Amino acid sequence: MPRRTIEKDKITKVIGKRIMSLRENKEMRREAFAKIMNVTQQQVQKYEVGKNRVPCESLYLLASYFELPINYFFDHIEG
Does 79 map to a domain? Predict the structure, then answer.
């Protein structure tokens, strides 16, 4: 059971880093990104550092908005 928790935490952090990278590459502030995701700026910051898990609906909104495949957030995650 502890191994599964570690994997989830790692996945959460990797997805957060990809969200941050996407935002920075698009030269967007957290405020603009938060509007796309329908969350607060603080929540975006928590996602980026891996403190909170990102709901699949939010990942879908980002992928749709930026015309990315949803697997952009999951590719090459090694558990």
Answer: no
Q: What is d(CA 37, CA 60) in angstroms, rounded to the nearest whole number?
A: 9
Domain presence at residue 16:
yes
Amino acid at 7: E
Q: Across the 79 residues of the chain, what is the mean pLDDT of every consecutive 10-residue run?
A: 65 94 96 94 97 94 96 82
What CA–CA distance (Å, rounded) separates 59 from 15?
A: 9
Q: Which domain holds residue 31?
A: 2-70
Cα Rg, the chain, nearest whole Å: 12
Which is nearest to 65 in space by CA: 46, 47, 38, 41?
38
